Amino acid sequence: xxPRAQLSRPPLERMLRIHDELxxxxxxxxxxxxxxxxxxxxxxxxxxxxxxxxxDLPIEFDVQIQAYRYTQPVTAFPTVHMxxxxxxxxxxAQRALQQYRGTPFHRQLEVAFEKLAGGLRDRxxxxxxDELSAVSFKNIGLGKTDLAVFNSLSGAVLRQxxxxxxxxxxxxxxxxxxxxxPYHLANRENSWYLVGFDLERQxxxxxxxxxxxxxxxxxxxxxxxxxxSPDKFFASALGVMGGTGDYRVLVHFAPVVAERVRERxxxxxxxxxxxxxxxxxLRLRLGALTEVEQWILGWGAAxxxxxxxxxxxxxxxxxxxxxxxxxxx
Length: 329
Known about the structure:
single chain, Arc Repressor Mutant, subunit A, five-stranded antiparallel sheet
């Protein structure tokens, strides 16, 4: 592949550029478009034919001026042809964007949606307000992320450049300086996390973005290990925090909550078995116990840990502490 071919614009970008030139009445022919788009004559002819024959744009070559032109006004580029069902799905997706309000991607997603919807206005007349009134999305506890920190870290991940920042561990008042090779950004449990190699500790670590401050991207390059995989890294985690252990977790759920447990995919390793009387048995294989302990507590007395023994002991200690907290005064 030649260097020029590698830099060639995508077909849609080329056609949008041609459309803009024609709409403003510029005199454009193959020679001018070849130079402007840095493509061959064959590509220009093919793009214009597609715009005319497949997108129904009123393009013709005027021999008197030796240039292409629109034979009638065109206000919007027909980028997408959609069925009514596809448009409804698109509008439902727009409603789903609201669950990401306050996250770094929300505004970018809104702009992208507006650009996509803009190409449909002259093609489709459809108002699914009644249908959409029955659709809503709600996530509890959306993570708060500093947009400047997110942008710095996302750029460093893409360019594979080391970063420095101050980090506050949970439960600590002070911050400690870190120098990290950022491998991956992940949205887990409605919050953003950075997975990176901590140079001082010589180990992979997970950092919650809300606890990162004063992020600085250095000019020091690194090469991300080929064997690093986000899926592999989080494989032993119920949510975010994995570990090096190998815990076989067995939990029994009472009938009152069994249906809710049965309806969801909690972890890749999960195995379920029906119990007499409508209860449910859930098996998980995890690398750490902290997150699964907190998750089980959320089910109250409707969940009982059968194994491992250390998880049962941890929960017994927590229940004892809770009893002291809620003892009648």
